[in-house]
Amino acid sequence: MYGAALSAYKKTSLANVNDQAQAVKLLFDGALKELHLAKDSLDAPLDLGHHIGKAIAIVGELQAGLNFEKGGEAAEFLYSLYAAIIRELSKVSGPEDKNILHLSIRYLTELKKIWEEQVLGVQAGEKPSLAKEKGKVLANIEAHI
Fold first, then answer.
1. Rounded CA separation 100/92 (Å)
2. For residue 8, what pLDDT is reported?
3. DSSP states of the chain as a string?
């Protein structure tokens, strides 16, 4: 059911991204967008379920993309964190679960910030640039995945 949505998301959002680091950033952006939409849909069960499903699928893609050989303990930690986020998001069914959404947004926002700073080399308040030195970005990717 959500495979088609994720496939469409990948085709439109990731089709022109040649840089793996930018692709990960777009996944963070997509998950956060869906979580914010879910937060705005807490009183509309069908919309809420739709946005939660998309967010879970995107977090699952972040989880599936981890490289345990290069990432070691960091990759193991992220795998467990993504699993916990997915598990908690699957419990969201209405306004009483808004804290789960807030926590998931907070965790993913912090991970995105770390990714932008450590891998993409973006400083606080600066917009990520596709024109960053590609060699530096690729070296950072290998060090952090």
1. 7
2. 55
3. -HHHHHHHHHHHHHTT---HHHHHHHHHHHHHHHHHHHHHTTT-HHHHHHHHHHHHHHHHHHHHT--HHHHHHHHHHHHHHHHHHHHHHTT--SGGGHHHHHHHHHHHHHHHHHHHHHTS-PPTTPPP-TTS-HHHHHHHHHHH-
Check residues 99 and 14 and name the one with the higher pLDDT.
99
Q: State pLDDT tens for residues 125-142.
A: 555 554 344 444 445 545
Domain ranges in the chain?
A: 2-144
CATH 1.10.287.130 fits 2-144, yes or no: no
Q: Is 0.85 surpassed by the pTM of this model?
A: no
